[in-house]
Design goal:
single chain; 262 residues; mainly alpha; Multidrug-efflux Transporter Regulator, Chain: A, Domain 2; two-stranded antiparallel ribbon; 13 helices; 2 strands
Length: 262
């Protein structure tokens, strides 16, 4: 016969847990010896292990009580159902583990491989890492919001990166990141970007330039991400509007103003 401490030890639980299961009516109270101490037999060990296993699997104690009183068929069916639930939870947790692992992989965080390849190409072209980071931070919500359109957008991005005029813009922006708002190089940047956008719109259509079509709150969020990483982008947008274009994430053609030279 076993003491409560020995029972708890053999079943892999605490004495407090044994008493709790007694209080909940899961484990029957045993006979006491002449000194008034509980004494348990081997069957109590088996029953306690069953209780512990079900409880650790996340089965509510009220349901544990029902299962312990169920017939063999009902018990087997319930165990099969619990197993299916646990396997589903394991798959979900595995997905969470993979997501956490991607946190250490930089650009791979929540980004499709083709976007990662695009960012790597920007780096290979010599684009400043701050601009690459701004692009990455923008693609994360964009890919989450409209994953089905990422291949289309990426095909367009790859095509655009074959244009020396756009590459020149990126490299000029890289050199102008730390410039003040009144620096003439930002005017040069605005001229270059406006010329590129206008040429693309005239050759391919305005949808080719501005076909992102995001709701205003998400577009504003992505703009803010860009401005926080590349502060000169905010001034660049002001200059760009005077040259007939507005927006950063959602580009739109507008009527240029007369003071485009500043």
């Amino acid at each position: 016969m076993l003491t409560i401490g020995e029972l708890a030890s053999y079943a892999g639980v605490t004495v407090r847990a044994v008493r709790h299961y007694h209080a909940k009516g899961l484990l029957p109270e045993p006979e006491r010896d002449h000194s008034g101490y509980r004494r348990y037999d081997g069957g109590a060990v088996v029953e306690l292990i069953r209780i512990r296993t079900l409880a650790e699997a996340g089965v509510p104690l009220a349901r544990v009580r029902e299962l312990l009183r169920a017939g063999e068929e009902e018990f087997a069916a319930a165990i099969a159902d619990i197993d299916r639930r646990l396997r589903a939870e394991i798959r979900e947790r595995q997905r969470h583990r993979e997501a956490i692992a991607r946190l250490t992989s930089g650009d791979s965080l929540a980004l499709p491989s083709q976007v990662v390849a695009y960012l790597d190409r920007l780096r290979a072209l010599g684009v400043d890492e701050r601009i690459v980071q701004a692009e990455r931070d923008g693609w994360i919500p964009l890919a989450a919001h409209a994953p089905a359109r990422v291949p289309e957008w990426m095909a367009r991005k790859r095509e655009q990166l074959d244009d020396p005029q756009l590459i020149d813009f990126y490299l000029t922006l890289s050199r102008a990141l730390d410039r003040a708002d009144d620096d003439p190089r930002l005017v040069e940047l605005a001229d270059k970007l406006a010329t590129y956008l206008t040429r693309m719109a005239d050759e391919r259509g305005e949808d080719y330039v501005g076909d992102v079509d995001l709701a205003s709150p998400l577009a504003a969020l992505m703009d803010t991400l860009a401005f926080d990483t590349v502060p000169s982008a905010r001034r660049l947008i002001e200059l760009l509007r005077r040259r007939g274009w507005t927006g950063w994430t959602n580009l739109e053609r507008v009527a240029p103003t007369s003071d485009a030279a500043s």
